[in-house]
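Format notes (please read before filing issues)

Several people have asked whether sequences and structure tokens are stored in separate files. They are not. Every record keeps both together, in the order shown below: the sequence lines, then the token lines. Line labels are part of the format and must not be stripped during preprocessing.
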Amino acid sequence: MNVLAPYYPSGGGPGRPPVSLERILRMYVAQQCFGLSDEGTKDAVYDSHAIRRFVGIDLNREAAPDATTLLKFRHLLEEHHLTESSSMRLTPIWLIEDYFFARARLLMRSQGLFTL
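Then the structure lines:
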């Protein structure tokens, strides 16, 4: 995140305050891992409890960032060549999958569907 911070808006200007860098980065990681469009990623946040938890959104308190916000973030990464940087290597997909599978097991266990 230190690589991205100098390029990410701080929120001092007009308009809506920016989404936190960690949250938008997590949304971007979910998008890349599942091969989703910007709109599909936003929908996945609403539809999937696991993705919502990974991104860190509580829908009772806030809305998910819209597709345009994710599009602008992706363009920011591309504009500054941050997806090519060796220090901007994204988390391997197996770590993300492990997170989602662990959450799914906890949910299933709480509903008596998983006994291991």
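For reference, the curators noted about this record: Residues 21-91 form one domain. The chain has a mean pLDDT of 80.
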